[in-house]
Amino acid sequence: MTLTLRQISFFVALTLASLTAGCARQSLESRAAGEVFDPHEGVNRSIHSFNLGVDRALFRPASNGYVAVVPPEIVTSFGLFSENLSMPGQAVNGLLQGDLPKTGLAISRLLINTVLGLGGLFDPASDFNIPRVDTDFGETLHVWGFGEGAYVELPFYGPSTTRDAVGVVADFFTNPITFARQNPADNIGVYAEIVRRMGDRGNYSATIDSILYESADSYAQARLIYLQNRRFELGGDQDSFEGVFGDPYSDPYEDIYAE
């Protein structure tokens, strides 16, 4: 696959933005306490406002229309297809994390769902009790000892951290499908991911709308949910370069329910 100048510029800009967001350093005390580190909140809020505008004008109505017109089983199949396309990259990340069982599961799901699931439109692997795999290069960096860095909000993409933003870029290059010489369509993985996100946005529209448009501060609410959920997924964040190890985080939604 040949990358266009626009694509290269986008990913380079994304990487530079991520690295810039990580220039400031969080104190050891606040990091050990698991506090939010958002040194560029002003810029992040501006991007959040931009993302809200895109969602309100384009993504939200398109997603709601998509799930209203397309039968639910087709929406599910398209989501499974996107998930299947991510398996090669997830297998690579499993290998980079030194997690051979995770790599094996990703490869097994890819082979079974591609062959028996009509290219990934169905999920026979789950019928064979093969667990789902959900990893990324952000988790790989976590395993390698990189701390999460500063909180950042990415244009169009949404909440992230310095580490996860770099992971978004790296995942594009670590998925072998991206560079397959006989791709059925250029950027098929990108298109499939957009359709998957439209399905999720439409199916969970009420919950997402309550966060983005009904909360007193949608930026702070989205930031809280993302960071707590991500830290919970990773079993607690750590930064071996600082020598700080935090305790495992509690249920990511506990504080939200308590409000």
TrEMBL record:
Record has Signal as a keyword: yes
InterPro entries the record matches: MlaA
Signal peptide span: 1-23
Keywords attached to this entry: Lipoprotein, Signal
Keyword Acetylation: no
Family statement drawn from the similarity comment of this UniProt entry: Belongs to the MlaA family.
Protein name according to UniProt: VacJ lipoprotein
